[in-house]
From TrEMBL:
Region (Disordered): 1-33
Top-rank lineage group of the source organism: Eukaryota
UniProt cross-references to InterPro entries, sorted A to Z: Nucleoside_phosphorylase_d, Nucleoside_phosphorylase_sf, Pur_Nuc_Pase_Ino/Guo-sp, Purine_phosphorylase
Protein's recorded name: Purine nucleoside phosphorylase
UniProt EC number: 2.4.2.1
Biased composition (Low complexity): 13-31
Keyword field contains Methyltransferase: no
Organism of this sequence: Drosophila willistoni
Length: 357
């Protein structure tokens, strides 16, 4: 999207889409801001051609996010350029990709000899805007394997299309990744689940897909995968069984489950009626991510292991109690308390994969 940049210039955009750059301004507290003038035509009784100019202030990060957000597609060549940038910058080719869910960014902190890329410094990469998502890509060694971990993912509710939310999975593929580990914080619908439990995903219900929204919409590039990929075995059974065995060794088997996850669009938490409907469909946990990443990973023939950390129990009965309402602070607190167990589970599983290869 021409006109928007992050070098101190600002864009003027009018109703016809024409943009012109001009200098930024500073606010009273000295923090430099960038401005964008939007000229909108309105119909008035006395002057049909009158115009109103609205000035808004955008930070450098917001302008960059706006530019990237308005890029509709990521052709193979662009994704290859991103992958080449990461491989060259890290001097490593990762075998395992990890997507860290809300509050689970510490998974990336245990990577050794790490090379860290901030999202904003990666060419053509989106920016994560959610608390608990650091916005960094970390490449390094973990249990003898070269891994790359996303400290922060991209969500549909941030305004990104699903293809862009899951684009980093394709970057991982072109970097050399064979396995995708996807983690998330989720609400537990299954009444047998408790806060702090870990649910290994063996299937999902794609509610966004029910509405006709898919990360694979549009022309298919066969260099990534087939036009009509099958998803009946999306989650690798061998990895699930290994994780269950690891859970027994760690002494947390009582807090581990195998279940079905569903992704809703967010950013609102679900209503009682929606949660009841999901439970009737066989869903055990619900969140706002992961499914489109898994679809993209399977499309390009990656092996997938995914789990949800149950950070709250979903209310399925009507109540006036505020305690029954989900909130992000609760999600972050539970994730912080359980991050050690989650990190150990991931590390031990990677160790087994590396030992068997």
């Amino acid at each position: 999207m021409t006109g928007y940049n992050s070098n101190g210039d600002v864009a003027t955009s009018n109703a016809n889409g024409h943009q012109n750059g001009h200098n930024g301004s500073s606010n009273n507290n000295g923090n430099r801001q960038l401005t964008a003038d939007y000229t909108a035509q309105e119909n008035h009784t006395n002057n049909i051609n009158s115009q109103e100019k609205i000035q808004c202030y955008l930070s450098t990060e917001e302008l960059r996010a706006l530019r990237v957000m308005n890029e509709d597609t990521y052709p193979y060549e662009v994704i290859q350029e991103i992958a080449d940038f990461i491989v060259k910058g890290s001097n490593m080719r990762p075998k395992i990709g990890i997507i860290c869910g809300s509050g689970l960014g510490s998974l990336a902190d245990i990577i050794q000899d790490a090379k860290v890329f901030e999202y904003e410094k990666i060419p053509n990469f989106p920016v994560s805007t959610v608390e608990g998502h650091a916005g960094k890509l970390v490449v390094g060694n973990l249990e003898g394997a070269v891994v790359m971990a996303m400290q922060g993912r991209f969500h549909f509710y941030e305004g990104y299309p699903l293809a862009k939310c899951s684009m980093p999975v394709r970057v991982m593929k072109l970097c050399g990744v064979e396995y995708l580990f996807a983690t998330n914080a989720a609400g537990g619908i299954n009444p047998k689940y408790s806060v702090g439990d870990i649910m290994l995903m063996h299937d999902h219900v794609n509610m966004l897909g029910f509405a006709g929204n898919s990360p694979l919409q549009g022309p298919n590039d066969p260099r990534f995968g087939p036009r009509f990929p099958a998803l009946v075995n999306s989650y690798n059974k061998e990895l699930i069984n290994k994780a269950l065995e690891i859970g027994k060794q760690m002494g947390i088997e009582a807090n581990m489950h195998v279940g079905v996850y569903s992704c809703l669009g967010g950013p609102t938490y679900e209503t009682i009626a929606e949660l009841k409907a999901l439970r009737m469909m066989g869903v055990d946990a619900v969140g706002m991510s992961t499914v489109h990443e898994v679809i993209t990973a399977r499309h390009c023939d990656m092996k997938v292991f995914a789990f949800s950390l149950i950070t709250n129990k979903c209310a399925t009965e009507y109540s006036d109690k505020k305690d029954d309402e989900a909130n992000h602070d609760e999600v972050m607190a539970v994730a912080k308390n359980r991050q050690k167990a989650c990190c150990e589970l991931v590390a031990r599983l990677i160790r087994q994969i590396q030992a068997s290869s």
